[in-house]
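A quick word before the example. In earlier lectures we treated sequence and structure as two separate objects. From today on, think of them as two lines of the same record. Here is Transketolase written that way.
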Amino acid sequence: MESVERLKGICQDVRADIVRMTNAANSGHPGGSLSAVEAMVALYGNVMNHRPADPNWPERDRFFLSKGHACPVTYAVMARTGYFPVEELVTLRKLGTRLQGHPSCKALPGIEVSSGSLGQGLSVANGFALSAKLNRKPYRAYCLLGDGELQEGQIWEAMMTAAHYKLDNVCAIVDYNGLQIDGDVEKVMGIAPLADKWRSFNWHVIECDGHDIAQMLAAYEEAKQTKDKPSVILMKTVKGKGVSFMENVAGWHGKPCNKDEMKQALDEIYGKGNGQ
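And the structure line, produced from the sequence above:
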């Protein structure tokens, strides 16, 4: 188990990794990756039962990235927790890389299922969670969703399914940053009042600051302790968090930094003068 301070330090490194790897690829999705850093660092660092050296360990907890375009944060956290060398991150989206532009379970051990088509991740997580119940296995299924992704109808079917089968080993995590590729989520297709909607589907709802490591750890623990119903963590976040010119700007959904912007971003992440 890592200390909160140590996890905060890993968050800095992961944010820098996201900026560097999308710059090296000259493509990718930094905005929604930066908003999910604390959630992912807490999950892989202190919450999930997993073995980076044995990614197919049968008793492992499973993580599903439903918003597959945010794979830079997943790759960076996996590298920082020992799944593969950090130096490999700059191969993102390069020909022949294991780090595809959307995660591929055929390319990279530790990726449970290929994703990218939005709206499908929670259904997949439900399937694994139901299998665990039927086979009396202890593992849990975690699924990271984008808030814009909740506009997909399959998500709501999956919400009904998880509640119907009382899948208390499912934990959905909603990156509630309020922006999607086309702009403000509420203007594109409103999802509010979000907490009330999940509760009406008989989910246990946990609301927290998605950039507060201690709150994220407490939220994950509350989800673990909840019985007979699935849990969802609605984490309030900032798209592009940690880089001032990216924060709350929808245009950074799928646009990498250029060299000068990367220098400024790294200076802000690590402190002025330390950008590399």
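Notice the following. The radius of gyration is 17 Å. We will return to this example when we discuss secondary structure assignment.
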